Amino acid sequence: xxxxxxALSILQRxxxxxxxxxxxxxxxDYIADLFHPYAAAQxxxxxxxPGRTNLIxxxxxTAPGKILGFSGHMDVVAPGNPQAWQYPPFSGQITxxxxxxxxxxxxxxxxxxxxxxxxxxxxxxxxxxGQIRLFATVGEETGEYGAAQLxxxxxxxxxxxxxxxxxxxxxxxxxxxxxxxxxxxxQGKGAHSARPELGVNxxxxxxxxxPRMAALMATKTEVDPVLGPLLHNVxxxxxxxxxxxxxxxxxxxxxxxxxxxxxxxxxxxxxxxLVTELNKNEDTALxxxxxxxxxxxxxxPKAPFVQLVQKIAAQTLQHKVPLVADVGxxxxxxxxxxxxxxxxxxxxxxxxxSHQVDEYILIKDYLNAxxxxxxxxxxxxxxx
Length: 384
Prior knowledge:
single chain; alpha/beta; Alpha-Beta Plaits; 2 domains; 9 helices
């Protein structure tokens, strides 16, 4: 396995590159340079927009076989107030048991672990069948842009299995909810509150939508045995300019956490139909929009690849590793739209410090992830 010093150096450098919701090209350049000495590594860049470049590293084995993918995103969320951090958020500070910094857990730790495995396979000349394909993607934190782009361009169409290195606390996640974020805008007409008949109250228009939306969601009674029920929450609402004026505009935003029983396209069609119905009233003018909807991952805990990852993780960690569901969504929401279906596992080092001050990763978890990824890649590809 790659030396611990080198593994920590790669993770530290990834953290030091400030890819806050953009600037992933700098991360991609650094990763590409790591593989430059190896002729066997094929490096492909796919630009999303200026300064935002996806990277695909492909390593082909000594004989034909299966194709194993690994996906990790290069962007991170903003660190907030740097003064609130114990260590500077982009220092990648290494202590005896931790590495600190924005993205240490989410998810440059998982990405660095996969990079280390590929570099080790290349340096050692380890024989394997088939192909390994690493996707380093842009825009995961704000909409899975990179995974969507690579899927649409066919880079995942021939995969036989995929690992997404999001922080799972080294548990094996095989399913997760989908997400629909929506906004309803209401257009009214401003007027003085002493002459309301001269205006149209946009907030009252939203109040027509709110109970009807709640009633619609209440009909979705099916409960997934692992993920639970569909969830709906109204999370933002605003309108008006001041207290003595009839509001001309108002806005309501909500969030759905979906389950496989309710496809996101069907839900969006029903919500759009509801707005259309309300707009038949001549006093109502509502407009609904959706923001980067993400499909749920309908995983199978008995899939051989899921079982393989669980077995190798348990052997490496020397304790039982559970099969669990992810409470959020991941890039799997995009990869499931590839030309063929393949098993997807979310498995990576990390903890609950993601998106928080003093985000960190335990060094032991990071090194264990490298060991587990290595064994999964070799055993999956070399199995008959």
